[in-house]
Design brief:
By secondary structure, the protein is an alpha+beta fold. It folds into 2 domains: 84 residues, no CATH class; 234 residues, 2-Layer Sandwich (BirA Bifunctional Protein, domain 2), CATH 3.30.930.10. Helices cover 39% and strands 19% of the residues. Strands 1-4-5-9-8-7-6 form a 7-stranded mixed β-sheet, sandwiched between helices. The chain has a two-stranded antiparallel sheet with strand order 2-3. β6 and β7 form a beta hairpin. Bound molecules: 3,4-dihydroxyphenylalanine (DAH). 3,4-dihydroxyphenylalanine binds next to β8 and β9.
């Protein structure tokens, strides 16, 4: 009897089930009316009284082991997607949960595709930069108060410290260094500023910078490029206005507003009643910047512009809190499933 119990326990551990029927067969073979375990219980009645205690315990644990095995096989069959149904090729498939693209990626691609139509190519540069590419070559002299416009994360100190780029204008510099003239380039990327995180500010965000350098580039060309972009991005009815501004790397500089695409310029709480929304900064490349990058400013001129991707996406989809972009909340991301 002892051997039989051992044998059955060993056999049990080898048992596998591919379908529901295999489990039922095992149950009948072990616990059915003529099953192996049932037979052992019948045999148990005939053994000597002094052996009853030992064998009683062994038999009970065998019975429990059979029950556990049956439960375990049933669970694993349910868990495995290839369970009982895997051989039924006619069964409808499970719906696949498709992911969606992040709104920042969608917006970046849209901006790029608009400017590609105007002949711009895309350039990228390092996120960890040196002071020269982020500030020096862009006409921010050392100690210049304009450096305070962008609160910087420094990685090292010295003459040309290493830092996290605060704007993608650094790629403008890198493009002028290595590209042949004329240049028409778009520089998308991630930027970093030491700002407290709130609904309207973050220490990491994304920009797209544009640069066009050629002979006879004028402010009228800049205005036309921005107007065409705004119409493509926010709709044919969109108007722009330019307000004088200051950036060290452009002269003259301007900030651009688009007519509010929600109230169509009438005034609403998104545009704070003004009918206008700010979308980007721009200007004519300062001759100092051209010269710092080895371009003859008497022969060439250019314009540049820079915009925050989060801001454009916020205006396009009325996202109220910038933090949504970084939290990866699937409920938020799913809202953009149908955009692409
Ligand atoms: N780099 C500026 C910023 O991060 C944005 C900008 C303004 C870029 C004007 C430009 C420009 O190229 O011409 O605030």
């Amino acid at each position: 009897m002892n051997d039989k119990i051992e044998q059955l326990l060993a056999a049990l551990s080898e048992m596998k089930a591919q379908k529901e029927q295999d489990i039922e067969d095992l149950r009948v073979r072990m616990l059915g009316k003529k099953g192996e375990v049932t037979k052992l219980f019948e045999e148990f009645r005939t053994i000597l009284p002094e052996q009853k205690k030992e064998f009683g315990q062994k038999l009970n644990s065998l019975k429990n082991a059979v029950q556990d095995k049956l439960d375990q096989l049933r669970d694993s069959l349910e868990d495995s997607e290839d369970g009982a149904a895997s051989f039924d090729l006619t069964k409808p498939g499970d719906k696949m949960d498709l992911g969606s693209r992040h709104p920042i990626s969608i917006t970046r691609e849209e901006i790029i595709s608009i400017f590609k139509k105007f002949g711009y190519t895309v350039a990228e540069g390092p996120e960890i930069e040196d002071d020269w590419h982020v500030f020096g070559a862009l006409n921010f002299p050392p100690e210049h108060p304009a450096r305070d416009m962008q609160d910087t994360f420094f990685i090292s100190t010295g003459d040309n410290p290493i830092l996290l780029r605060t704007h993608t204008s650094s790629v403008q510099v890198r493009s002028m260094e290595k590209m042949d003239l004329p240049i028409r380039v778009l520089c998308p990327g991630r930027v970093f500023r030491n700002e407290a995180i709130s609904a309207r500010a973050h220490c990491i965000f994304h920009q797209v910078e544009g640069l066009y350098v050629d002979k006879n580039v004028s402010f009228a060309d800049l205005k036309q490029a921005i107007l065409l972009f705004a119409k493509e991005m926010f709709g044919e009815h969109t108007q722009i206005r330019m307000r004088p501004s200051y950036f060290p790397f452009t002269e003259p500089s301007a900030e651009v507003d688009v007519s509010c695409n929600i109230c169509k310029g009438k005034g609403c709480n998104i545009c704070k009643g003004t009918g206008w929304l700010e979308i980007l900064g721009c200007g004519m490349v300062d001759p100092n910047v051209l010269e710092a990058n080895g371009i003859d400013s008497k022969v060439y001129s250019g314009f540049a512009f820079g915009m925050g991707i989060e801001r454009i996406a916020m205006l396009k989809w009325q996202v109220k809190d910038l933090r949504n972009y970084f939290e990866n909340d699937v409920r938020f991301l799913k809202e953009f499933e149908t955009v692409i």
